[in-house]
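Example record

Each entry pairs one chain with its bound ligand, uridine-diphosphate-N-acetylglucosamine.
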Amino acid sequence: MHILHVVGARPNFMKAAPVLRALAARDAVRQTLVHTGQHYDSTMSGVFFQQLGMPEPDRNLEIGSGTHAHQTAAIMVAFEPVVLETKPDLVLVYGDVNSTVAAALVCSKLRIPVGHVEAGLRSRDRSMPEEINRLLTDQISDLLFTPSADGDENLLREGIAREKIHRVGNVMIDTLVRLLPRAIECFPSNLPSPYALVTLHRPSNVDDLPWLRNLLATLSDLSAQLNIIFPVHPRTRERLTELGITKAHAARLHLLEPLPYLEFLALQTRARFVITDSGGIQEETTFLGVPCLTIRENTERPITLTHGTNQLVGRDMQRLQEAAAEILRNDSVAAAPNPSRVPLWDGHAAERIADVILQQRSRAANHSLLRQSGGN
Ligand code: UD1
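Structure tokens for the complex follow.
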């Protein structure tokens, strides 16, 4: 069986790595890895391949940045001949980035089966480009691998057939479980403690320049209480430059370059709390038991609110300050990783994906044998 995986942007790499490994351990599976090149810097891509132990991509489409239409279309045009040439039996796409929807669209038109890893998540906020990518990818996928029960419910509500939906758990947590011991050894020794860790890159936060300025002012205020460590995403760096901000104006606010996977994970484990707008970090902090304050009005990962450590603070900066103060006051509960906090977030989701794929394959083979022998 030939399985082709498509990755493009930073959060795809931690999701694809365990699935590549799980399938590599199975008999009679051949794999091709295509990188669209949506993310291309070594800090956003190369170092992740290295740390996650991923094979070099067989193809790099080198698409790079652009408007949504340009980026999505360029990926489709470059990816179609790869599919025609390599003739995969199944294409796996990951998460909700432009590379995900572009590859799924190409395959559905060519009648190549598509599996979507991390299907069914919904923020119900269609102003987010990722929500559009999620909705469309799920509608045209043949196998939908969901991380939690809310994903199944969303898909059923949208009319997806129950037999296409497979609840397997969270592949990003597979990577965390595998690499946590190594990450702890990579703790950056040159950073001050105690600290809060910050990441921000959603267009709704960083493309609105007055709001971004306001956010930075809030972080400066918070830094009076503890160090703020903020590895800056390239999109955010560009916007800060537009605002004329090239360095922090508060002594304990530390603006860094994007960090590799292991260093960032290590920093999450010892953070007093995390401030973010990333989806994956809401999940990682939930697993680690580290308080997370999310600067968004909604989340496609509600299980991190009900079972985890996440709180939505939206644009209410007073609420953020109060939540931070509350966390600092209640310092007694130490953060601890917990593989049973959310069902199936246990480090084995990718193996369950491999099981489903191979069961489907043998069912299809039996079916065609039966047809050939005139059975039914
Ligand atoms: C993309 C995903 C988002 C994901 C995020 C993780 C979509 C719609 N968005 O957002 O869901 O959470 O990746 O990082 O697919 N840039 C570089 N170097 C790089 C990559 C990007 O400098 O290696 C800069 C470019 O100037 C680019 C900007 O960052 O214009 C944004 O990159 P882009 O891929 O458009 O989207 P992200 O904001 O990274």
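DSSP finds 15 helices and 13 strands in the chain.
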